[in-house]
Design brief:
With about 400 residues, the chain is an alpha+beta fold. The protein has a single domain, classed as Cathepsin B, Chain A (Alpha-Beta Complex). The chain has eight helices and 15 strands.
Amino acid sequence: MLPPSCVYSFTGLCLLFIAAPLPGHSHSLGRVSTNSTSLSYSTFLQFLKSHHKTYPAGSQTFHNRYKAFLESIQRQKYLNSFTTSSNASSEAYYGINQFSDLSAGEFARMYLRSHFTGNYETIEPGKSPASERSLPLRFDWRDKHVVMGVKNQMSCGGCWAFSVVGAVESAYAIQGHQLEDLSVQQVIDCSYMNSGCNGGSTVTALRWLNQTQAKLVRSSEYPFKAQSGICHYFSLSDFGVSIKGYEAYAFSRCEEEMMAKLVQYGPLTVIVDAVSWQDYLGGVIQHHCSSGHANHAVLVVGYDKTGDIPYWIIQNSWGTTWGVEGYVYVKMGNNVCDYYRMKKIPRGFRIRNTPTIGRNNPEMCRKWIAILNKCSLDLILLVIDEVGSD
């Protein structure tokens, strides 16, 4: 049984891992053995070399990084202890990666900076046009070449911007245009209701894009700098992509509706609880320790229900050396990572007052009321169904 501080109910928007080992993906230091009781100093030095990190020998910084590294090893052993022998090949496994010299608090302050504000639009969309029976068992937008490659937010807490831009890129390509690498830095600098690399809201970013009709330029024109800067998106450009509207949804154990929206419109912007993702190497996340709230924005690009464990396929923004070449698989079924809120890109919206809805109210599933922070196991989906360019 999981301890009280952990959550075993991962519903909604989580991805799982294929029952077979991941092809073509390895980590230089590998997963941590649960039989090991200590980690040698030489292993820490190997970690520093592998990840091109340097700290002055004998300094307080070196001591702090080494201490955090040892704490990471213990945390990884704990997370790996939930693996069962029957599903060992497909369950999530944890080990040394580029974040292993950060404490859990440091990691959260640097990378888990997505949030929701109190002011937001509440949308009550129509009934799903597709049922679970009409949906394929496996669907991945990457197969259609409309998903941009994994990006790296580095030390910038701009996951919210990466998620939104990724959804816009895919929405634009799905409409028959060339897949474009759009500027995340532009959203970080110019979405004035957010806090740039100090955190932000995906809902607020989409509201800004929709209300201002700002045109996202190519990243080559407005490159990522891993820090907040002065907005200059009004500079002259011969190209720009804007959205025509968006929809937001809250989901609570309504995965067929989520699947239908994913297949119908494209990759989904989602807010998740990613506290246990710091040490993730691969496999399907099925249970984790929860912080109790959503804190990280990602992009759901597909799902797979062909194996024993159905899962969502999620693109992260921590580079290709993290996870499964930048992706994470999370189990469908119990809101595994508190997939509080989802969003995709446009379809128009209408504003209504937010109702007070109890956590187990079945009307939420039937009516899809977006509520933000009312129910801890719900999701909010933003759908973009139209984009334009000049």
